[in-house]
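pinned: reference chain
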Amino acid sequence: MVGSLESDVEHEVLIEMGLSQAKYIAAPDKQADPAAYQRFIDEIDSGNHGLDELVKFAKKVPSHTEWIEKYKETNAQVLEYLQNLKRDNRFEQADYSSIKAFRESVQGMLSNAAVGTGDFYVSNMQYFASLLAD
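pinned: its C-alpha coordinates
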Protein backbone atom coordinates (compact mmCIF):
# COMPACT_ATOMS: atom_id res chain seq x y z
CA MET A 1 0.00 0.00 0.00
CA VAL A 2 1.37 3.37 -0.97
CA GLY A 3 0.98 6.38 1.30
CA SER A 4 -0.35 6.63 4.80
CA LEU A 5 -3.68 7.38 6.36
CA GLU A 6 -3.99 10.76 8.01
CA SER A 7 -7.01 10.17 10.21
CA ASP A 8 -9.28 7.62 11.82
CA VAL A 9 -11.95 8.55 9.27
CA GLU A 10 -9.63 7.64 6.39
CA HIS A 11 -8.88 4.34 8.14
CA GLU A 12 -12.62 3.64 8.52
CA VAL A 13 -13.25 4.40 4.84
CA LEU A 14 -10.49 2.00 3.82
CA ILE A 15 -11.92 -0.76 6.04
CA GLU A 16 -15.38 -0.20 4.58
CA MET A 17 -13.97 -0.34 1.04
CA GLY A 18 -12.23 -3.60 1.90
CA LEU A 19 -15.45 -5.10 3.22
CA SER A 20 -17.25 -4.08 0.04
CA GLN A 21 -14.46 -5.46 -2.13
CA ALA A 22 -14.59 -8.76 -0.24
CA LYS A 23 -18.35 -8.84 -0.69
CA TYR A 24 -17.89 -8.31 -4.43
CA ILE A 25 -15.50 -11.24 -4.96
CA ALA A 26 -16.69 -13.42 -2.04
CA ALA A 27 -14.27 -15.93 -0.53
CA PRO A 28 -13.10 -19.31 -1.77
CA ASP A 29 -15.75 -21.83 -0.88
CA LYS A 30 -14.48 -24.98 0.79
CA GLN A 31 -17.19 -26.96 -1.00
CA ALA A 32 -16.60 -25.44 -4.45
CA ASP A 33 -12.80 -25.58 -4.41
CA PRO A 34 -11.41 -27.20 -1.24
CA ALA A 35 -7.79 -26.76 -2.32
CA ALA A 36 -8.25 -23.02 -2.96
CA TYR A 37 -10.06 -22.68 0.33
CA GLN A 38 -7.20 -24.36 2.20
CA ARG A 39 -4.61 -22.15 0.47
CA PHE A 40 -6.69 -19.10 1.45
CA ILE A 41 -6.86 -20.25 5.10
CA ASP A 42 -3.13 -21.05 5.09
CA GLU A 43 -2.40 -17.54 3.78
CA ILE A 44 -4.45 -15.96 6.56
CA ASP A 45 -2.94 -18.25 9.21
CA SER A 46 0.58 -17.31 8.10
CA GLY A 47 -0.20 -13.62 8.62
CA ASN A 48 -0.77 -12.69 4.98
CA HIS A 49 -3.89 -11.00 3.63
CA GLY A 50 -5.05 -13.90 1.42
CA LEU A 51 -5.89 -11.55 -1.46
CA ASP A 52 -3.89 -13.53 -4.02
CA GLU A 53 -5.94 -16.65 -3.34
CA LEU A 54 -9.17 -14.64 -3.40
CA VAL A 55 -8.33 -13.24 -6.82
CA LYS A 56 -7.30 -16.64 -8.23
CA PHE A 57 -10.59 -18.09 -7.02
CA ALA A 58 -12.63 -15.20 -8.42
CA LYS A 59 -11.05 -15.67 -11.84
CA LYS A 60 -12.01 -19.39 -11.88
CA VAL A 61 -15.66 -18.82 -11.02
CA PRO A 62 -17.02 -17.96 -14.51
CA SER A 63 -15.94 -21.33 -15.90
CA HIS A 64 -17.66 -23.28 -13.09
CA THR A 65 -21.41 -22.88 -13.55
CA GLU A 66 -22.07 -25.36 -10.74
CA TRP A 67 -20.29 -23.02 -8.31
CA ILE A 68 -22.42 -20.13 -9.56
CA GLU A 69 -25.63 -22.08 -9.04
CA LYS A 70 -24.58 -23.14 -5.54
CA TYR A 71 -23.67 -19.52 -4.78
CA LYS A 72 -27.09 -18.34 -5.93
CA GLU A 73 -28.74 -20.92 -3.68
CA THR A 74 -26.89 -19.74 -0.58
CA ASN A 75 -26.63 -16.06 -1.51
CA ALA A 76 -29.77 -15.11 0.42
CA GLN A 77 -28.23 -16.45 3.63
CA VAL A 78 -24.95 -14.64 3.03
CA LEU A 79 -26.72 -11.38 2.22
CA GLU A 80 -28.86 -11.68 5.33
CA TYR A 81 -25.73 -12.19 7.43
CA LEU A 82 -23.95 -9.22 5.84
CA GLN A 83 -27.01 -7.00 6.22
CA ASN A 84 -27.18 -7.88 9.90
CA LEU A 85 -23.56 -6.92 10.58
CA LYS A 86 -23.45 -4.16 13.15
CA ARG A 87 -20.83 -2.15 11.24
CA ASP A 88 -22.09 0.82 9.24
CA ASN A 89 -20.65 0.85 5.73
CA ARG A 90 -21.00 3.89 3.51
CA PHE A 91 -20.44 1.62 0.48
CA GLU A 92 -23.23 -0.84 1.30
CA GLN A 93 -25.35 0.41 -1.60
CA ALA A 94 -22.60 -0.15 -4.18
CA ASP A 95 -23.58 -1.79 -7.46
CA TYR A 96 -22.23 -5.38 -7.35
CA SER A 97 -23.45 -6.40 -10.81
CA SER A 98 -20.02 -6.14 -12.50
CA ILE A 99 -16.53 -4.94 -11.64
CA LYS A 100 -17.06 -1.84 -13.79
CA ALA A 101 -20.36 -1.01 -12.08
CA PHE A 102 -18.86 -1.72 -8.67
CA ARG A 103 -15.79 0.47 -9.30
CA GLU A 104 -17.87 3.34 -10.70
CA SER A 105 -20.43 3.24 -7.90
CA VAL A 106 -17.77 3.20 -5.16
CA GLN A 107 -15.86 5.99 -6.87
CA GLY A 108 -19.08 8.01 -7.11
CA MET A 109 -19.68 7.49 -3.41
CA LEU A 110 -16.12 8.55 -2.68
CA SER A 111 -16.57 11.78 -4.60
CA ASN A 112 -19.55 12.58 -2.39
CA ALA A 113 -17.77 11.65 0.85
CA ALA A 114 -16.02 14.26 2.94
CA VAL A 115 -12.96 12.16 3.75
CA GLY A 116 -9.54 13.64 3.15
CA THR A 117 -7.98 13.09 -0.24
CA GLY A 118 -9.96 10.82 -2.50
CA ASP A 119 -6.92 9.96 -4.63
CA PHE A 120 -5.79 7.31 -2.15
CA TYR A 121 -9.16 5.57 -2.26
CA VAL A 122 -9.50 5.87 -6.03
CA SER A 123 -6.05 4.29 -6.38
CA ASN A 124 -7.11 1.52 -4.02
CA MET A 125 -10.23 0.81 -6.08
CA GLN A 126 -8.34 0.90 -9.37
CA TYR A 127 -5.76 -1.55 -7.99
CA PHE A 128 -8.53 -3.85 -6.76
CA ALA A 129 -10.22 -3.81 -10.17
CA SER A 130 -6.90 -4.47 -11.94
CA LEU A 131 -6.40 -7.60 -9.84
CA LEU A 132 -9.60 -9.04 -11.26
CA ALA A 133 -8.88 -8.09 -14.88
CA ASP A 134 -8.04 -10.94 -17.22
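why pinned: The chain has six helices and no strands. The helical segments are 8-25, 34-45, 51-60, 65-83, 99-112, 118-132.
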